[in-house]
Amino acid sequence: LAKTTQPISMDSYEGQEVNITCSHNNIATNDYITWYQQFPSQGPRFIIQGYKTKVTNEVASLFIPADRKSSTLSLPRVSLSDTAVYYCLVGDPNSGGGADGLTFGKGTHLIIQP
Amino acid sequence: NAGVTQTPKFQVLKTGQSMTLQCAQDMNHEYMSWYRQDPGMGLRLIHYSVGAGITDQGEVPNGYNVSRSTTEDFPLRLLSAAPSQTSVYFCASSRPAKNIQYFGAGTRLSVL
Question: N or C: which end of chain B has fewer CB within 10 A?
Fold first, then answer.
């Protein structure tokens, strides 16, 4: 199972763009990269998933370099409500049985200040 | 849309008591998982299921049992509660890609 490494915490200000990087040096060929957001007292919520290059949705963008050994979640123009813990997971979604892609680390605690 | 429903939301147990945390999903998802989350920690996988009748252990399975008799339900049983099992428990389901999971609101369990 590919192991991920993220910063424990980050600070930013309202209106700024925030980039959270996740390292996954031993990512496998069939692995996808998935990001979740968790607010206090709630379950995690899926944000975005990608395999290579760039993926964008209404919430965030995900940048994945050619070697796929890292990925960057980009949150444009953050607000106070973006304060949350963000998790990066790596795994093969089509591996059938097994816990591949179901392992959460400690995540990155993002704090947005006024 | 109900999604993933967990009951109860809160529970207090005494050491040695048993109980079942309920989890139900109405999305016809094949994969279901149970996680626990302790203060300052990420989520740790307890047990998971790839379909009705099939379950397997995650990172921290000791002290917990599961079964999956239907696609919709995935109960988590604590056979003899211990203070170390005080935690917030989350249930999740996913389909078809198992790594896009939908989580319930959680059950806060205290074992005294």
Answer: N
